[in-house]
Write a structure and sequence with these properties.
This protein is mostly helical and about 130 residues long. The protein contains seven helices and two strands. It starts with a helix and ends in a 6-residue tail after the last helix. The N terminus is likely disordered.
C-alpha cells in the first residue's frame, strides 16, 4: 500500500481514532490506520448478508434466468409507500391513499402488472 503513504495525509488528516477509541497522531500511524480501514472496508467478511444483499442476488438471478420478475415486489411496495397522501390524483384518478389502503393484495397485483408491462414492453388497453 505504498500509494497511500505517497499522499500527504498531514494536510488532510493529522489525527484519527481507532476502533477501540484511541487517538493516533503520528503520520505513519495515521497512514497505517487508513490502510487497515480500507482493507477492512473492501474485504468481504460475509457480515453484510442482509436484506439488501438478498434483494440484489434475487434481482441478478432473475436477470440471468431471463424470467419476468425483473421488478422486485419490494420496489413496488417502496414506491407505493413513497406516495404522499392528500395530493391530487394522477391521470388515472386514483388517490395514493386508496392504493395504500389496498395493502399487500394490491401491491402483489401492481407488481404482477408492472412485470407484464415490462416483459411485453407495451401498455395494456384497460
Amino acid at each position: 500500500m505504498n500509494s497511500v503513504s505517497a499522499v500527504n495525509l498531514s494536510a488532510v488528516c493529522s489525527t484519527v481514532k481507532t476502533l477501540n477509541g484511541t487517538l493516533i497522531t503520528g503520520q505513519q500511524d495515521v497512514v497505517k490506520q487508513w490502510t487497515e480501514y480500507g482493507r477492512q472496508l473492501y474485504t468481504d467478511t460475509g457480515v453484510h448478508e442482509g436484506a439488501m444483499i438478498r434483494k440484489l442476488k434475487a434481482r441478478h438471478d432473475s436477470e440471468v434466468r431471463g424470467d419476468d420478475s425483473i421488478i422486485l415486489r419490494a420496489e413496488v411496495e417502496k414506491a407505493v409507500k413513497k406516495h404522499k397522501d392528500k395530493n391530487s390524483p394522477g391521470v388515472d384518478d386514483i388517490l395514493a391513499e386508496l392504493i395504500k389502503a389496498g395493502g399487500p393484495v394490491l401491491i402483489t397485483q401492481i407488481h404482477r402488472h408492472c412485470n407484464i408491462i415490462r416483459k411485453k414492453e407495451t401498455w395494456p388497453d384497460e
